[in-house]
Design goal:
Elements lengths: L3 E4 L2 E4 L10 H5 L2 E9 L2 E2 L2 H14 L8 H14 L5 E8 L16 E8 L7 H4 L1 E7 L14 H12 L4 E6 L2 E5 L3 E6 L2 E4 L10 H8 L1 H4 L2 E4 L4 H5 L3 E6 L3 E8 L2 E2 L7 H15 L6
Parallel strand pairs: 7-8, 7-14, 11-12
Antiparallel strand pairs: 1-2, 1-6, 3-4, 3-5, 5-6, 8-9, 10-11, 10-13, 13-14, 14-15
The protein binds pyridoxal-5'-phosphate (PLP).
Pyridoxal-5'-phosphate binds next to helix 6 and strand 13.
Length: 285
């Protein structure tokens, strides 16, 4: 069965959906995206993803003509039309289609595309075995806090990971781990979770924020600081967070075993709490 996707106001079978070859998302990567998870047919923390979308669009001066409520309604409609129980919903908005010219076009409506991808998140194999991570230099631009559709550097990093038999790449800059190619990076020492502060150097993870909201419930403390690769190799545990990996234990980094090669109790406990939160649609408490 072909998917039903959303393009500029219409719900269409994916093979009938079209956008212009002059779309600025395609020509310049002049656009923003978001990814929300669906678990048990429910959107997870979608409001927070849409708040980040609004912020990203504001930072590139792309005026969004849709309200958050309208965008949530499209998400819900796609879940219904695709009978999506578990998977991701991708939203891509570009500055629209216009003859090729770098400066912003006048009187052009943004292009909005949304599509679903059915995938198992809760029973992902990595949750039982842990995932392998390899490191690679961080080649990205200076505004990584904007969720831009320019994903060439992460594409190259992920391809390097795939060719190395790993599931994620950790990006290294000035000797420290910035983040995963598509996730937030964490290490654990005792009862302390360590992840770097938010800045223009990283995407502010929505899953990161949720995990930090569970500190009291989980009994962990948080140390917000940078960490080096050497420190990560020496850590008791490591894990990543993202909308689609949830909380995922890391069991090797560059071939070095972390936590005896088995998922650690901290990552597994946070994953359990996150899944309970996700099943409620991403509502705290
Ligand atoms: N960092 C980067 C570079 C990402 O691409 C992502 C997710 O795609 C994340 C962090 C995690 O963000 P979130 O938890 O909002 O999915």
């Amino acid at each position: 069965m072909s998917r039903i996707v959303y393009v500029n106001g219409a719900y269409l079978p994916e093979e009938d959906a079209k956008i212009s070859i002059f779309d600025r998302g395609f020509i310049f990567g002049d656009g923003i995206y978001e990814v929300s998870a669906v678990i048990g047919g429910k959107l997870v923390d979608c409001e927070a993803h849409l708040a980040r979308l609004e912020r990203s669009c504001g930072e590139i001066r792309l005026a969004l003509p849709w309200s958050k409520a309208e965008l949530v309604a499209v998400h819900e409609e796609l879940i219904k039309r695709n009978e999506l129980d578990e998977g991701g919903i991708y939203l891509q908005v570009s500055r629209g289609a216009s003859d090729r010219d770098f400066a912003f076009p006048k009187d052009v409506a943004p292009t909005l595309v949304m599509f679903t991808q059915a995938r198992s998140f809760v029973d992902a194999p990595g949750a039982k075995t842990g995932i392998k991570v390899v490191t690679t230099p961080d080649l990205r631009w200076a505004r990584r806090d904007i969720k831009s559709v320019n994903l060439l550097a992460p594409v190259l990093a992920k391809q390097f990971a795939a060719e190395s038999g790993a599931q994620e790449a950790w990006l290294i800059e000035d000797g420290v781990v910035t983040e995963g190619a598509s996730s937030t990076a964490w290490i654990v020492k005792g009862k302390t979770l360590i992840s770097r502060p938010l800045s223009n150097k990283v995407l502010p993870g929505i899953t990161r924020k949720a995990v930090l909201a569970f500190l009291a419930e989980s009994g962990f403390t948080f140390e917000e600081r940078e960490f080096t690769l050497e420190e990560a190799l020496d850590a008791e545990e490591a894990f990543i967070t993202s909308a689609t990996s949830l909380v995922m234990p890391v069991t090797t980094i560059d071939g070095h075993t972390i936590h005896n090669g088995a998922p650690g109790p901290t990552a597994l406990r946070l994953r359990e709490i996150y899944i309970a939160f996700a099943r409620k649609g991403g509502v705290l408490g």
